[in-house]
Amino acid sequence: MRKPIIKTLLAGATLALLSGMAHAETVIKFSHVVAENTPKGQGALLFKKLAEERLPGKVKVEVYSNSQLFGDGKEMEALLLGDVQLIAPSLSKFDRYTNQIQVFDLPFLFKDITAIHRFQQSATGQSILKSMTKKGLIGLGYWDNGMKQFSAKKPLRMPEDAKGLKFRIQASDILEAQFKAVGAVPQKLAFSEVYSALETGVVDGAENPWSNAYSQKFFEVQPYFTESNHGYLGYMVVANAKFWEDLPADVRSVLEKTLAEVTAQVNTQATAFSDGDRKKIKESGKTEILQLTPEQRTAWQTAMKPVIEQFTPKIGKEIVDAALAANKP
Ligand code: LMR
């Protein structure tokens, strides 16, 4: 008599467990390294709001900003291990996973953000999103931050002014070559270490879009900025490919639609963020923003051009050509 009772109890418990699992809430941890008052910070929060409104009880999004969960040395590894489910690293931080994406780091390649959007939306740009699936990463969209500006402890007007100065760079070989091309000394450092490296003189300069320079207070420890717009800082929102593919189809489809809307919103607001933060930096009176004459800009462009030639074979000529083609409307 006892055995059937135990069997029934066990069967009941299994059923309860299974039905509980069927209704379990999917937790999506979205980790990033910047402040909340930036294009990426706002994008992550908007994604959380919309996803939870649209999938109540099915999806919960936890956003961790400012490297509080994982800094940029660790976030990719954490995604692959399933410790977080979504991240949006800068395009410069993927070079261990795909060579093609390095096209975004080439200095003075794109005319402006509109050209970058044209390239991202082209067949080539979209194929880069899917270029890392075999390595376990799936790209879900491109988010802008903005164009990068040089900053340093001394005024940078001509490439020679950078000679011998130490510049913090993201972990990208192209950015390393870019600074070496002007005789400077690049140093790869995690984003969370930049303020203190600038403050203590571990490095003399950096390159950042206005929103990072403002939200991390870099302008307080860099007396000069040069409005160089020499390169792009944008992000790829990526998920662990297996996690994403294993989501129930209806949930995945709502999340993809939501991400597409958030992407459009982030990219519409990023320019306003840049303009607003540039203005706040200027008004702070703590740093000077230098403008380049057309001749000075050409001098930087000429000095850094060999970097494009050096890296084109590695990235793929067809990718670089497609990027250049996007400069023409
Ligand atoms: C940096 O390291 O400078 C940037 O990639 C940080 C970011 O995510 O904008």
UniProtKB/TrEMBL annotation:
What keywords are assigned to this protein? Signal, Transport
From which residue to which does the signal peptide run?
1-24
Q: Which Pfam families match?
A: DctP
Q: Which InterPro entries match?
A: DctP_fam, TRAP_DctP, TRAP_DctP_sf
Q: Name one GO biological process term.
A: transmembrane transport
What's in the GO CC field? Answer: outer membrane-bounded periplasmic space
Which family does the entry's similarity section mention?
A: Belongs to the bacterial solute-binding protein 7 family.
Which protein, by its recorded name, is this?
C4-dicarboxylate-binding periplasmic protein
Q: Which gene encodes it?
A: dctP
